[in-house]
## 1
Amino acid sequence: MSSARANARDGAEATRVCPDYHAAVEMIGRRWSGAILWALSEGPHYFAELSQSIPGLSDRLLSRRLRELEQEGLVERSVHAGSPARVSYSLTDKGRELGPAIRELRAWAKRWNAGAARP
Amino acid sequence: MSSARANARDGAEATRVCPDYHAAVEMIGRRWSGAILWALSEGPHYFAELSQSIPGLSDRLLSRRLRELEQEGLVERSVHAGSPARVSYSLTDKGRELGPAIRELRAWAKRWNAGAARP
């Protein structure tokens, strides 16, 4: 407690949370986004495959999240000729570089059995 | 694309997203929770210090998030005798072990300037 106590006593400014980190943690933590990024970290997926990988996620919300992740530059969309044309999704470099953070979080989650602790 | 295409063709089950990871990413990504965990990763804080570290977060929502993080076993609360009594918050072992994931995410966020890319 000593540093907290000292800060409180002398009125020093508390360290502000890094805004880049703050934006990033809420972006990957947005409902279902972290799951989509995880699925795509295993490789490119067609829409139907993503939908299958993430039980409970509606197609409507999956489309919306994919559009957001595209806007954020994490995911790219490819259209494959054919009838009907098929659309696949993959991570960009920016998305792929989230890999170490996602893996650390997964390791933590497995260690602490985070799924069971959910309130 | 070869593996995505192969999966789609032979109808193999897509890999399900790990439920522990899924719970964890949405827990730390819940609005403001990631910021609170970050602030506490620097050491124990009194309530007022946390509030100062995270501009834009109301005291009401800060209290609520701290209670949730306590229930999830990430944060612990200590009451310090005095008049008025003061309450400080610190990370538990479980909370501290999120450190590597949080640091990886921060490194990524700084590299990609995630705060600016927010839609």
## 2
Amino acid sequence: MPYRRAPEWQISHWFNTPEPLTLARLQGRPVLALAFQMLCPGCVSHGWPQFLRVTAAFPELYAIGLHSVFEHHDVQGTPAALAVFLHEYGIDVPVGLDMPGGGAGPPLTMRAYDMKGTPTLLLIDAMGRLRRQYFGPVSDLHLGAAVAALIGEAAAGNDNPPADEFGDVGRR
Amino acid sequence: MPYRRAPEWQISHWFNTPEPLTLARLQGRPVLALAFQMLCPGCVSHGWPQFLRVTAAFPELYAIGLHSVFEHHDVQGTPAALAVFLHEYGIDVPVGLDMPGGGAGPPLTMRAYDMKGTPTLLLIDAMGRLRRQYFGPVSDLHLGAAVAALIGEAAAGNDNPPADEFGDVGRR
Amino acid sequence: MPYRRAPEWQISHWFNTPEPLTLARLQGRPVLALAFQMLCPGCVSHGWPQFLRVTAAFPELYAIGLHSVFEHHDVQGTPAALAVFLHEYGIDVPVGLDMPGGGAGPPLTMRAYDMKGTPTLLLIDAMGRLRRQYFGPVSDLHLGAAVAALIGEAAAGNDNPPADEFGDVGRR
Amino acid sequence: MPYRRAPEWQISHWFNTPEPLTLARLQGRPVLALAFQMLCPGCVSHGWPQFLRVTAAFPELYAIGLHSVFEHHDVQGTPAALAVFLHEYGIDVPVGLDMPGGGAGPPLTMRAYDMKGTPTLLLIDAMGRLRRQYFGPVSDLHLGAAVAALIGEAAAGNDNPPADEFGDVGRR
């Protein structure tokens, strides 16, 4: 099998959900997660609008935000700061605060996925495998294709997808 | 099989191709066709830009334009008018002039597909079956999904696709 | 006086007006005219939308379209073709068909203003003087400034405006 | 004179300027100021892009940002938070942190101008008079007109402008 299991995320604080959302609990449906920082311009201008567009178009997805603060922790990194951001932007999907790794570096989930920065999109299939990871812009055309393929597999009960014709990080 | 064979198109004049492009000749790769009128505002502002975006993103597609003139035939309907439009807009994909049906009504290909107007997108799979027909706006997300599914089937040699989970005319 | 009198336009056919609109008749209010061709992509995608935006924002303006066909006369140049274009695009401001100059060259109004192509915007003050001529893109910021200045002069009865601080063809 | 003197702003901390910028010091050129909050979506998506567009188009303006925090003071209201925002968004015009008024209410400059929220644009003429105050969206067309009028007055040494034909808060 060419895909690795998506690392379980490590979250210090959840918003917009009554209980923690582990990957294990979400299995059975594809997951689209957006790792962002509240003061990252590309996250606010492109990442979040596209993420909300995709999750509205494909309600079969679990939609999860990950606040992966790797710089300016004092300003962006607190639950209070994240709560204000979510309130001001009217975001009501579940969002987890990525667990600080100690010191000034990236948080633990960001490290486990070896993310290069924000925004990063993670696309995880219904079996819990990491199928796509996009850092920076990806077109709606290619993202829609990647998402729909996982929804189709889940609907068909197909747990042995073809090797990915789009390469490691997804066609953009 | 839930899909019907795409009707062969009927063309009076081809542009940007050394020889006529019948559906029979194109079999083996999915086809995306845009039926338009040169003076239809939605075709110019949305239809053509999206069509060119999709065909650039997915080079596995055959990209075909169909000039399906169902009104103002005297102004829009001549090969000379279409030639000027293609030149001014820098369109270099093959475009066929949909065969006039006689009188003021819709042309023959438009009738065969029972198109409601322009722009209409036709998505035909590598086996020559009509899989999607969109009249008016469709999101890049859903169009990318539909196109990529047919490319995936063709690559896998899968000629027995699942019943369409998106319904008759495609999710938008 | 640093401004020249705007040349009277020469029109073979008017649309959307019960009688011909000479510049002499329009004097007393500023005039914004858009010279275009129906198959010029920049005219359709940028020129007309901006022109309609400006004339809606500043109802003090006379808004006039000039169909200045300098190429592909057989396809674009007839009153019938222009009528279809205006109908399909829902344009209801007065539009004049610039008088053909004979042969394949530019029409007479286009020549009188020495236009370089389409779209071209002409801004004429309430005294009938040509104050701005923009070929190609101009920002809403600078166009709004230029239009409002002429409206202000007309309201103040000021017929001796300062030399233009923006230069010959207008700041963009 | 129908215009009131713009109240001097009250700033607790300046960024991107070697010394405090009082209105008295800026007199002689028109001033465009943007009052914003770093976590206000409309400020980030529309207010700042338009402000930067206007100040690039009209270099005769003094461009000033005012961080007028009237809610979520603990997250948005510190100099450290503002410094991160300016760094992440690449903003290099002078920005002042509006002086907190004590408690949870609006800061002192916001009160002095009776601002209704953010984003708010203030347009102050070269004589130090408040000429326009826009809360929320204003079109580039009308903003360009208002700005250029003040630049024209300043260039002409005209200190007795006509009563404003656009009304109290500016045409949008």
